[in-house]
Amino acid sequence: MAKEGEKGEWKEFIWNPRTREFLGRTASSWGLILLFYLIFYIFLAGLFALTMYVMLQTLDDHKPTWQDRLSTPGMVIRPKADETFEIVYDIQKTETWDLYAQALDKFLAPYNNSIQVQKNDECVPDQYYKQEDSGEVKNNPKRSCQFNRTMLEECSGIYDQHYGYQEGKPCIIIKLNRVIGMLPGKNGNAPYVTCGAKVQEDTDKIGELMYFPPNGTFNLMYYPYYGKKAQVNYSQPLVAIKFLNVTHNQDVNIECKINADNIPIGSERDKFAGRVSFKLRINTKN
Ligand SMILES: *[C@@H]1O[C@H](CO)[C@@H](O)[C@H](O)[C@H]1NC(C)=O
Ligand SMILES: *[C@@H]1O[C@H](CO)[C@@H](O)[C@H](O)[C@H]1NC(C)=O
Ligand SMILES: *[C@@H]1O[C@H](CO)[C@@H](O)[C@H](O)[C@H]1NC(C)=O
Ligand SMILES: *[C@@H]1O[C@H](CO)[C@@H](O)[C@H](O)[C@H]1NC(C)=O
Ligand SMILES: *[C@@H]1O[C@H](CO)[C@@H](O)[C@H](O)[C@H]1NC(C)=O
Asked: Which residues cross the membrane (predicted)?
């Protein structure tokens, strides 16, 4: 009997026909609760949207609000070897160096003169190409300067399709990572790249080097860089190095670095800043 009573109580709790209550509440009570939560959540969503909106207003689409880590630029070499930074090949085995030449072809394709002329300006060399915003008025989009592939001359892949690899005089291309707002060089002196032996015993093995553009400079007109969004067509300037007489059949450890009064090299914070090293080995006998 007690059991039946309990069952009846439950039934009544779910739906009480006398008081017309569902789960202990009348329809209007339920309605009020739903209405309350509806308004409450709409209010929360509105608050969230408002906060987001205000925050996004303070962000500039064309400039990162936070930039810290990249204040000293790293350098990278092309052709991109594997992670170990090695360029090792055998002159007699075409397949061992053809990959490097192909990688350079691909890397340099956007620098074709025709493309550069279409996308970018012919700037006044040896001075920064500043396009500042005047207060709230954004000077966007910003133009960029031409870096013609032909400026790499013998390392452009145009006059010598094999970039010298076939003759044992390979070209290496260097670029400096992009840093927004960086003005490298001082007093009108452009930053330039120099390469040398990483270790003393390799000094005699490096042989003569040739730099393109002359003196291995990154012209000042390619700076400052304003960011991907503001400067859509930006082409990073390059420096090519041709190894004219590197010793064959031996590992040669090379280090290239940027020379600019205001770019610290290998700082404590980032030992790769402003320099890059790699191994070059050209085999000529099986
Ligand atoms: C760039 O120029 C090279 C040689 O002049 C040509 O073979 C290549 O197809 C060009 N690439 C593009 C993307 O126009
Ligand atoms: C790039 O090449 C084009 C055509 O080859 C030439 O008209 C232009 O002046 C060159 N630009 C620079 C900066 O040398
Ligand atoms: C970028 O290059 C395209 C052509 O590829 C050109 O139409 C456009 O005007 C350029 N934009 C800027 C901001 O230089
Ligand atoms: C290269 O450097 C030398 C010596 O510093 C200088 O005389 C020459 O004008 C430079 N060449 C170019 C093209 O900047
Ligand atoms: C190339 O380097 C070797 C030593 O490694 C040297 O004997 C030779 O004279 C150099 N050749 C040229 C053209 O500089």
From this structure: 30-56
Q: Are residues 46 and 75 in the same domain?
A: no
Which residues are near ligand 4 (CB < 6 Å)?
214-215
| Rounded distance between C-alpha atoms, residue 87 and residue 152, angstroms | 20
Please report, for residues 108, 109, 217, the alpha-carbon distance to residue 158 in angstroms, rounded to integers and kept in the order given: 10, 11, 21
Q: Which atom of ligand 4 is nearest to the CA of 213?
A: 13
> Are residues 104 and 158 part of one domain?
yes
- pTM score, two decimals? 0.79
Reply yes or no: is the peptide bond before residue 184 cis, omega within 30 of 0: no
Q: CA nearest 276: which of 214, 206, 198, 209?
A: 198
Residues 73 and 51 in one domain: no
46 shares a domain with 187: no
Q: Which percentage of the chain shows pLDDT scores above 90?
A: 60
Q: How many domains does the chain have?
A: 2
User: For residue 79, what are the domain limits?
Assistant: 69-283
The bound ligand whose nearest atom lies closest to the alpha carbon of 249 is: 5
* CA-proximal residue: ligand 5, atom 11 (nearest): 245
**6 close to ligand 5 (CB < 6 Angstrom):** no
Q: Which atom of ligand 5 is nearest to the CA of 205?
A: 5
Residue 51 and residue 162 share a domain: no
